[in-house]
Specification:
seven-stranded mixed β-sheet, globular, two-stranded parallel sheet
Length: 252
């Protein structure tokens, strides 16, 4: 009798930069949800401390010591979510790579809808969207305006049809990511846009998933959004990326 095939391995990654106030609560909340809800895949949870100067790494190490088979911690000295994810994802043994913002603004009940397109329907990338008709969000006017401005500019300049490029709730097939990783350049927040557009350009299928999203779940966490400054950065990055896309070779 043939041995049963191994389950898909999903790596849930939480990038953290000076998040000591919320790290333990968020990690344990995700850990407990995964433990209490039977998953049709194997899983691990990875804390990625990127450039933290507070106690984030030490707190993550304690959690890893408590649950060494399910929680791990990696330390990447340079700040920047994008470069931290790129570096770690190229080394992860998982079949599906997930990243979620450490504040868990997206309701955890949306996890199955994020994973199933990759596991069951042959998509290469699934992205959470706060702007689909089925989504439910609770956010400030300034955050809403910032998202709408960026998504309008990115559709105009890059010519895509996705509704939300920046939601911190994404899952990608590991082979597909490793195929395009060398073409990703931005070390910070623009990583998300590069990831989506490059997967699509390489011939990958991308699925948008509606989410329930709540801002300021932790009242000690201050928003880092600066509308005018960030909009100008968005615009410059979009123009540069559009220029670079026209010159890329070797994606297909």
């Amino acid at each position: 009798m043939a041995a049963p095939a191994n389950k898909t391995l999903v790596d849930f990654c939480l990038p953290v930069y000076n998040e000591e106030r919320i790290l333990e609560d968020s990690v344990l909340k995700l850990f407990n949800w995964l433990q209490q809800n039977d998953q049709p895949y194997d899983w691990r949870l990875t804390i990625i401390s990127n450039g933290s100067t507070d106690n984030s790494f030490a707190l993550g190490q304690k959690l890893s010591d408590r649950f060494p088979s399910l929680i791990s911690i990696v330390n990447i000295p340079q700040p920047g979510r994008g470069q931290a994810l790129k570096k770690y994802w190229q080394e992860s043994p998982a079949d599906i790579l997930v990243y979620m913002d450490i504040d868990l603004a997206v309701d955890l009940k949306n996890i199955p809808a994020l994973i199933s397109p990759l596991q069951e329907k042959n998509y290469e990338l699934a992205i959470g969207s706060r702007l689909l008709p089925e989504s439910h969000i609770d956010r400030s006017f300034i955050r809403e305006l910032s998202s709408q401005t960026y998504n309008f500019l990115s559709r105009l300049i890059l010519g895509h049809r996705f509704s939300d490029m920046q939601c911190g709730f994404k899952a990608v097939a590991a082979p597909s990511f490793k195929k395009i990783a060398a073409f990703i350049q931005d070390p910070h927040w623009f990583f998300d846009t590069e990831l989506i557009v490059l997967i699509k350009k390489s011939g990958g299928r991308v699925k948008e998933v509606p989410v329930d999203w709540q801002e300021n779940r932790y009242d000690k966490r201050q928003s880092k959004v600066k509308l005018f400054r960030d909009s100008w950065k968005f615009f410059k990055n979009l123009v540069r990326f559009r220029w670079r896309l026209g010159r890329l070779k070797g994606l297909k």
